[in-house]
Amino acid sequence: MYTNGTIPEMIFPAGPAARVEAASPTRPPDRWTYLSGGAMDEADLIHDWNEVGPAKRPPDARAPQLDDETLRDGLQNPSVVDPALDDKIRLVHLMDELGIHTADIGLPAAGARAREQVVALVREIRDAGLSLRPNCAARTVVGDIRPIAEIQQTTGVQMEVYAFIGSSPIRQYAEGWTLDTILHHVEEAVRFAVGEGLSLVMVTEDTTRANPAAVAAIYRTAIEHGARRICLADTVGHATPDGAAALVRFVREEVVEPSGEDVGIDWHGHRDRGFGVANSLAACEAGADRLHGTALGIGERVGNTEMDLLMVNLRLLGWIDTDVSALADYCETAARACGVAIPHDYPVFGRDAFRTATGVHAAAIVKAQAKGADWLADRVYSAVPASMVGRHQEIEIGPMSGLSNVKHWLSVHGHDAGNEELCNRIFAAAKAGDHTLTQAELKALIAG
Description:
The chain is of the alpha/beta class. The protein has helices spanning about 40-45, 85-95, 110-125, 140-155, 170-175, 180-195, 210-225, 240-260, 275-285, 305-315, 325-340, 360-370, 375, 405-410, 420-430, 440-445; strands at about 20, 35, 65-70, 100-105, 135-140, 160-165, 200-205, 230-235, 265-270, 290-295, 355, 395.
């Protein structure tokens, strides 16, 4: 409890770079002032409770790799459009610009068009000198893997195969499979891929509902015959963050480490329960070193982990140091090419992510800007700095606005914010309305 109008020092810890003038009987709390004695220190202004609790990812852990599934798993959503080749090429370039390591560019066994576009994308990656490494999906059968081997031979580009097979008891029951049947397919497919010079990732579908013995047997068989990467798939979005972490730890400790081989672990998540990004972060903390996602989370049913939001969170956590300013272009390109709309309230990249028409919020941003501190203005009401993704804070005018909204908007748009009659006219119109005023409405009010 605060007493005598003061505020505990621990709330605003003073450091060598800054001090805080606390509230007092003569200085009410709404006039707390940040006094700079040098450069602002984020730790002095924001206490991060996300760093409190169980042990986090080791600080010396390698940055996770990222695999983009937009052009394969993302296109399995029944409401999206399969993009034109030019749009796919643009997306591949954006993935490379963002530092995404690998991308699933299709399932060649799906048909002639799929195969032709995969070949074209591989050639573009090769000829443009992109760092992005291509991979393709396949069922765990030789017939699906053979076309990928042919593409590697034709283009001269090393290909990675993501060979998937169901692993859960419910899937086995529905398909009429036994574990021996699955292991036979795994052995045959891995042997063929390795023999063709392909890198193979063993993907177990529905891993998050599979029993430990089956998961271990499938992965051990794949590793014994040459697979050097395995992929844990939360195919129906069943996992919680605790479940994702437990599964990764089990596979790492019971399969990968005892194998004695250098085997990578992928996490492929879906968001049926809304845990896409959270599960990916939990999997990464537990030892997964490659995380999958799609632009805007498009994909089967309600979609996959959102690659854009995953990258933002990884950047904020300090687990990657990638420049993520191209993510807005990535999202907008994917939305247009795939025929999907970005919801206005979609985190970070929605139209309203950095817009406010609320008086209290706007006033705080304006006060921060008045201190000459863009850094402060970009964080006082934002957990994600708009500037990090190439955007900026926007203050609008609506029924919940204060006069500070009006004056700021007029100033930003080149009008006289000191014109009290004009400010009051706009303010009255906003208060009488039921929506945020549009540009056209504001221009009409300014014109009188």
